[in-house]
UniProtKB/TrEMBL annotation:
<dbReference type="GO" id="GO:0043066">
    <property type="term" value="P:negative regulation of apoptotic process"/>
</dbReference>
<dbReference type="GO" id="GO:0005829">
    <property type="term" value="C:cytosol"/>
</dbReference>
<feature type="repeat" description="TPR">
    <location>
        <begin position="48"/>
        <end position="81"/>
    </location>
</feature>
<dbReference type="GO" id="GO:0016020">
    <property type="term" value="C:membrane"/>
</dbReference>
<keyword id="KW-0802">TPR repeat</keyword>
<dbReference type="GO" id="GO:0016853">
    <property type="term" value="F:isomerase activity"/>
</dbReference>
<keyword id="KW-0413">Isomerase</keyword>
<dbReference type="InterPro" id="IPR011990">
    <property type="entry name" value="TPR-like_helical_dom_sf"/>
</dbReference>
<dbReference type="GO" id="GO:0012505">
    <property type="term" value="C:endomembrane system"/>
</dbReference>
<feature type="region of interest" description="Disordered">
    <location>
        <begin position="110"/>
        <end position="130"/>
    </location>
</feature>
<dbReference type="GO" id="GO:0005740">
    <property type="term" value="C:mitochondrial envelope"/>
</dbReference>
<protein>
    <submittedName>
        <fullName>Peptidyl-prolyl cis-trans isomerase FKBP8</fullName>
    </submittedName>
</protein>
<dbReference type="GO" id="GO:0044183">
    <property type="term" value="F:protein folding chaperone"/>
</dbReference>
<dbReference type="InterPro" id="IPR050754">
    <property type="entry name" value="FKBP4/5/8-like"/>
</dbReference>
<dbReference type="Pfam" id="PF13428">
    <property type="entry name" value="TPR_14"/>
</dbReference>
<dbReference type="InterPro" id="IPR019734">
    <property type="entry name" value="TPR_rpt"/>
</dbReference>
Amino acid sequence: MTFEEEEQLLQLKTKCLNNLAASQLKLDHYRSILRSCSLVLEHQTDNIKALFRKVSVLVHQGEYSEAMPILRAALKLEPSNKMIHVQLSKLVKKHMAQRSTEKALYKKMLGNPSRSQPSGPARAWSIAWK
């Protein structure tokens, strides 16, 4: 096989894997999509379609912190792509909401760690009855 033939075969393989990932996305086969996109990205790290599909799956799974760097990498590759800008904006909002929910949950589970404990002898609690 010549180098040109091998290169053509590799391009055809990535197109097929991208199409496979698109069809898997319609069927909600998320693990399969991640595998297909990873195979594409092994050969073409700058493949926007594979990056965007991988981000879609990660967002669906709630893995916002994993999806953000991938989407930022896609934005560096295509800074004029409006779809990436919109998705990144939505992702940042979702990530912020998720973090605030997690903080509230941790605060509820662990109590309010910012409250300072009284120093010195133990303070007796009293309830004022009216």
